[in-house]
Task: structure prediction
Amino acid sequence: MVTWAYTATSSNVFDLEFRCKSCGFASPVKVEAKGAGYQGGVASRNDAAAAAKVKQQAAVGAQRWAEIFVEFCPCPRCGKRDEAAVGAYKLKSWMVGGVSAAILVAGIALCALSLVFAGAAVALLGCIGVIVAPAMAASTLSSARKKVHFPVETARPTT
Ligand SMILES: [Zn+2]
Result:
């Protein structure tokens, strides 16, 4: 049972560089991204350390998402996306989903062995992973174009 929990979200605009592997188009971009952090536990808490860690997690998460969005953004000039990166990301998401499914099975097995508390916690964790991983993969790919902002002049298609 979690008796205390800290959560934090970080929303930021990052200045990154977009580079197209197909046509060589490059442009500075501004990327909106959000990250979240969470710390919870049952033991006595350390307020300052936990709060700082959660904020740090959120900031690191936001930065990572910004980089992912740039990687998945279709090129504004040739319209191509880095299919290798997209393929690798999809594969990874399926692996996370698969590992989560395995955790879920392990949790159910632990429940059956009447280690109910540990089993339920493990199963819940697996369950969240199974639901979240594929859904996140789909929404990340579709939202990448909206999160990455090109300067207007360079975003016009050149023929
Ligand atoms: Zn391109």
The pocket of zinc ion is lined by residues 20, 22-23, 25, 75, 77-78, 80 (CB under 6 Å). The beta strands are 4-19, 26-41, 148-149. The longest strand covers residues 4-19. The mean pLDDT is 79.
